[in-house]
């Protein structure tokens, strides 16, 4: 894949958004700063109410920040009304005109901009091809499926060639299979058009599947920004580790820190290396996270980092989950990929050793 350019399309600088006043005041966004690069598939990920839609609406110009500014290619866009911003939005509800044809829906924005007829025709044809809807160009949008409506909504939003496309949970109305297909399709559309996509979702798997980078949000703040791999392998905070994927949290004592890594002592007395969040230098008691697939099972001998009892074994076809109870009473899950016909002799109720590899543990900031 070609390198993405390192130029910022959008810069959100110390933006806050307060709704209401007095007792009923809500800080939907609390001093948020983030830069989104040109030609990037960028995702705002977080639970309901964390402020994702509010941030998207401020970028679109449907609402104004209480404080801070939003720059588009270095220019403050506060004075620009929504229709003058080179930004378009795809809503969850699609907002198509049901009595109009697919082609007319796609061309609608261009008509409003007063583009010449020939240009509209050519652009609509190009968009129909891009979203693979040529065969249904003359069909009314009330007579096509949900997935097809989604494609038309995308084509309509892309037709005026916005610099930035905002997508607010656009796949949430689709069934699971179609949603999976559209995730790949959206990634392709972003790649082919080179337009910067800012995508909002509360679905971590969706965010991991599609994004170049993800911003994880909670309670009006951005907690961490990084590639899907960074966010999954190197979560900086407990909320991030918990929200994305499964996690084992362990209490540990920091016994040393050097060149961005720590040595921590587990409750068993074993010392293991652990990665640190950028710029974080802990001391004393910390929480570390170990992903279930980053720990191995073995004999409960001196070489194991921890030991525990096997409480449950869940076979899931591609992999098996071992639910363990550590000697100190904490739960611990190990996930192991299955290979054909392999029997491993691990039984429910048995004692087992857990090995935590040199790159498996991550210290959390909280
Ligand atoms: P969801 O995934 O449910 O859409 P979200 O992460 O997009 O959630 P927002 O819609 O941005 O969250 O809302 C953030 C917070 O601001 C919530 O507490 C919400 O109730 C509040 N809020 C949003 N819009 C308004 C408004 N117009 N007036 C008052 N409060 C609002």
TrEMBL record:
The keyword Transmembrane helix belongs to this UniProt entry's keyword annotation: no
Enzyme class: translocase
InterPro entries: AAA+_ATPase, ABC_SmlMolc_Importer, ABC_transporter-like_ATP-bd, ABC_transporter-like_CS, Mo/tungstate-bd_C_term_dom, NA-bd_OB-fold, P-loop_NTPase, PotA-like
Keyword Plastid annotated: no
Pfam families: ABC_tran, TOBE_2
GO molecular function terms noted in the UniProt entry: ATP binding
EC number of the protein: 7.6.2.11
UniProt entry keywords in alphabetical sequence: ATP-binding, Cell membrane, Membrane, Nucleotide-binding, Translocase, Transport
Residue ranges of every copy of the ABC transporter domain listed in the record: 10-244
Reaction catalysis annotation: ATP + H2O + polyamine-[polyamine-binding protein]Side 1 = ADP + phosphate + polyamineSide 2 + [polyamine-binding protein]Side 1
Subunit structure: The complex is composed of two ATP-binding proteins (PotA), two transmembrane proteins (PotB and PotC) and a solute-binding protein (PotD).
Role this protein plays: Part of the ABC transporter complex PotABCD involved in spermidine/putrescine import. Responsible for energy coupling to the transport system.
Family affiliation: Belongs to the ABC transporter superfamily. Spermidine/putrescine importer (TC 3.A.1.11.1) family.
Protein name: Spermidine/putrescine import ATP-binding protein PotA
Organism of origin: Mesorhizobium caraganae
């Amino acid at each position: 894949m070609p390198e993405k350019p390192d130029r910022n399309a959008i810069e959100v600088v110390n933006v806050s958004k307060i709704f209401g006043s007095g007792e009923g005041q809500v800080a939907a966004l609390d001093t948020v700063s983030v830069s989104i690069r040109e030609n990037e598939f960028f995702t705002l990920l977080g639970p309901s109410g964390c402020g994702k839609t509010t941030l998207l609406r401020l970028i679109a110009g449907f609402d104004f920040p209480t404080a801070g500014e939003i720059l588009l290619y270095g220019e403050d866009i506060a004075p620009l009304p929504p229709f003058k911003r080179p930004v378009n939005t795809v809503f969850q509800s699609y907002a198509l005109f049901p009595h109009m044809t697919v082609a007319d829906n796609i061309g609608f924005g261009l008509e409003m901009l007063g583009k010449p007829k020939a240009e509209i025709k050519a652009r609509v044809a190009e968009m129909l091809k891009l979203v693979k809807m040529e065969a249904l160009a003359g069909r009314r949008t009330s007579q096509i499926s949900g997935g097809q409506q989604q494609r038309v909504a995308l084509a309509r939003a892309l037709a005026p060639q916005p610099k930035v496309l905002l997508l607010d949970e656009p796949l949430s109305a689709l069934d699971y299979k179609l949603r999976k297909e559209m995730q790949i399709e959206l990634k392709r559309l972003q790649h082919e058009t080179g337009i910067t996509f800012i995508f909002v979702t509360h679905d971590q798997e969706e965010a991991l599947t599609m994004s170049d980078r993800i911003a994880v949000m909670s309670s009006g703040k951005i907690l961490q920004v990084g590639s899907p791999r960074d966010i999954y392998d190197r979560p900086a905070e407990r909320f991030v580790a918990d929200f994305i994927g499964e996690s084992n949290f362990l209490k540990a004592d920091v016994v040393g820190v050097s060149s961005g890594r720590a040595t921590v002592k587990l409750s068993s007395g074993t010392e293991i290396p652990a990665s640190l969040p950028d710029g974080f230098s802990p001391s004393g008691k910390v929480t570390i996270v170990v992903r279930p697939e980053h720990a191995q099972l073995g004999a409960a001998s001196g070489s194991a980092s921890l030991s525990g009892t096997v409480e449950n074994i869940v076979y899931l076809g591609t992999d098996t989950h071992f639910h363990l109870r550590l000697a100190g009473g904490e739960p611990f899950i190990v996930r192991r990929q299955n290979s054909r016909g392999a029997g491993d002799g691990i039984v429910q109720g048995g004692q087992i050793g857990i090995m935590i590899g040199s790159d498996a543990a991550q210290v959390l900031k909280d």
